Amino acid sequence: AVIVLGRVGEIEWANQKAAEYMGINWPQDGGLRILNLVRDPKLIKYLNADKETQKKALQLNSPVSMETRLEIRITSYGKTQKLFVARDVTSISRINQMRKDFIANASHELKTPLTVISGYLEGFADDEDCPEKWLSYIRQMRLQANRMQNLIEDLLELSSLEAGTENNAADIVSVTDLLSSIVTEARSLSGFLEHDIQLEAEPSLYINGNQRQLYSAFSNLVFNAVQYTPEKGRIRIKWYEDKHGAHLSVIDNGLGVAPEHIHRLTERFYRIDKGRSREKGGTGLGLAIVKHIMVKHEGELHIESELGKGSHFRCDLPKQRIVHIETGLKKSLTA
Ligand code: ADP
After folding, report:
1. Per the omega criterion (within 30 degrees of 0), is the bond before 41 cis?
2. How many angstroms separate the CA atoms of 266 and 325, rounded?
3. C-alpha 9 – ligand 1 centre gap (Å)
4. Burial class of residue 124 in the structure, from the number of CB atoms within 10 Å of its CB (0-12 exposed, 13-18 middle, 19+ buried)
5. Which residues contact 75 (CB under 8 A, 6 or more apart)?
6. Which residues contact 328 (CB under 8 A, 6 or more apart)?
């Protein structure tokens, strides 16, 4: 459907599909404001939004038939006019929903049997009567079962992020506390590899967000730095604020990433070296999860890296999410 709107949103022209999709009839509705005819709050917000917001398409159900899913775009046209275009995306969004449901259901269904298998394997490994020659097979099976469990956890996490059912502003998160416990875990993950891991954090800088999700995003970045940095490597974690917002920066001097891979790292299952990632228990879903969590918090993930030199992963969170809770003097936390 195509509708030409005047300066105050009055209908100047519409094609035939506009009647079918939007219930707007030309020429009868000519001169009337579109928002007087279609009173959908989402559409009202979108039409009144700034140009930046209008760059992204809006999806909504057709006011004529609830079963029809529409994708709406608005572009400037002429000096004061706007071009309103609505496209029927019912089948695409149905297929998309089916894909999401399938992944969520399949992961959920696989979870229980895998828990049972892992439980028995653990029992065998601990059983004194277990024949010696089986132990190495059982160890392999436990390793693989563990990998599958990680995969399922990550797939479920992605599904729940896509479904968007969790509240993304439920907690006032002390990111400094969150990072302190992540660093403790990272040091134990590093173990004999003895990475030099340092945290510098602004304790009064809190975020209004989802604590569990932020933990998942930040720990993914820090654990990746440990996984992809050779022994005794340097890892610096910084939590700070500037005029743009709050930032978590994770810098390592590890393997780094060649330029051609950087923009694809957040794709699901994209791994530069599949063998190495698997060997380290990676699922290839970590950065996809981080990116999703940032989007849910109106934030962004930035990646800079140089092959052989190291990487810098940075999460930017917007100003409106920041909460200041003074805890006395601003102190540098070097755990
Ligand atoms: P994985 O489970 O494989 O670690 P991620 O989505 O977390 O999956 O990361 C995707 C890929 O990005 C990794 O396989 C690795 O090649 C690369 N990568 C992630 N973090 C780093 C890092 N700090 N240094 C170098 N490469 C990294």
Report:
1. no
2. 33
3. 48
4. middle
5. 82, 83, 85
6. none
Our answer on whether the CB atom of 203 is closer than 6 Å to any ligand 1 atom is no
CB count, 10 Å around CB of 127? 11
User: What residue's CA is closest to ligand 1, atom 13?
Assistant: 271
How many beta carbons lie within 10 A of that of residue 31, not counting itself? 10
Q: Which residues of 138-163 are buried (b: 16+ CB within 10 A; e: fewer)?
A: beebbeebeebbebbebbbbbbebee
Tokens of 238: 């910084």
Residues 6+ apart with CB under 8 A from 280: 227
Residues 46-72 have a mean pLDDT of: 91
Q: Give me the mean pLDDT over the 115-119 stretch.
A: 94
44: pLDDT strictly greater than 60: yes
Does 255 contact ligand 1 (Cβ within 6 A)?
yes
Confidence of residue 16 (pLDDT cuts 50, 70, 90): very high
Residue identifier of the C-alpha nearest atom 2 of ligand 1? 282
Structure tokens at 259: 């330029």
* Mean pLDDT along residues 271-290: 86
DSSP state of 298: T
- For ligand 1, atom 11, the nearest C-alpha belongs to 271
Q: Which residues pair with 239 in a beta bridge?
A: 201, 248
pLDDT tier at 330, thresholds 50, 70, 90: very low
Mean pLDDT of 314-321: 97
Please tell me the distance from the alpha carbon of residue 41 to that of residue 47, in angstroms, as a whole number: 10
Q: Mean of the per-residue pLDDT values for the chain?
A: 92
Ligand 1 atom closest to 289 (CA): 6
Read off the pLDDT of each residue in 105-125 and give the average, rounded to a whole number: 93
Q: Is residue 229 a contact partner of residue 255, using CB atoms and an 8 Å limit?
A: yes
List beta partners, residue 245: 242, 318
DSSP letters of 260-296?
A: HHHTTTTSTT--SSHHHHHHTT--S-HHHHHHHHHHH
